[in-house]
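Query structure, 160 tokens:
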């Protein structure tokens, strides 16, 4: 905090931490809905995502990644845990999610993949509000996220 900044109240810090969490959830939602513009909107202009630098390059990487997901007919990403530390106009957070991907096969069967992802993010308050300035894996920051668990689940239709 600089000498010109007023100390944050507990509520201000909580609201800032929630704003950062909201950005990460928007990132996940953009992936689920395959919206590269929404995906790009959460980043600072000079952001670094894994080894990709700059908002425009991150958007292009998202377009390519989302095109590669065409075989996935259903994707769900759920937060499993998060923690954000706010320090004035910057913050750092760790995020853990679980994902389920539904992938129909040529023989008519369906593969259900269960995966986890771990992220470390840095956030910066900008004139647009909070934005992600850097994000990558916790263990390996030069990739988009760490994945420690990948499993194929048995698929059985259950009607309620």
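Result returned for the query:
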């Amino acid at each position: 905090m600089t000498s010109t900044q007023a100390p944050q109240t507990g509520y201000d810090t909580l609201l800032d931490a929630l704003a950062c969490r909201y950005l990460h959830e928007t990132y996940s939602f953009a992936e689920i809905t395959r919206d590269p513009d929404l995906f790009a909107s959460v980043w600072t202009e000079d952001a670094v995502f894994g080894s990709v630098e700059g908002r425009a390059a991150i958007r292009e990487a998202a377009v390519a990644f989302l095109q590669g997901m065409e075989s996935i007919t259903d994707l769900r990403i759920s937060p499993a845990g998060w923690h954000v530390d706010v320090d004035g106009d910057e913050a750092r957070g760790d995020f853990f999610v679980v994902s389920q991907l539904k992938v129909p096969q040529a023989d008519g069967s369906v593969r259900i993949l269960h995966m986890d992802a771990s992220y470390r993010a840095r956030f910066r308050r900008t004139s647009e509000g909070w934005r992600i300035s850097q994000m990558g894996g916790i263990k390996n920051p030069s990739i988009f996220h760490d994945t420690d668990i990948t499993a194929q689940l048995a698929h059985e239709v259950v009607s309620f």
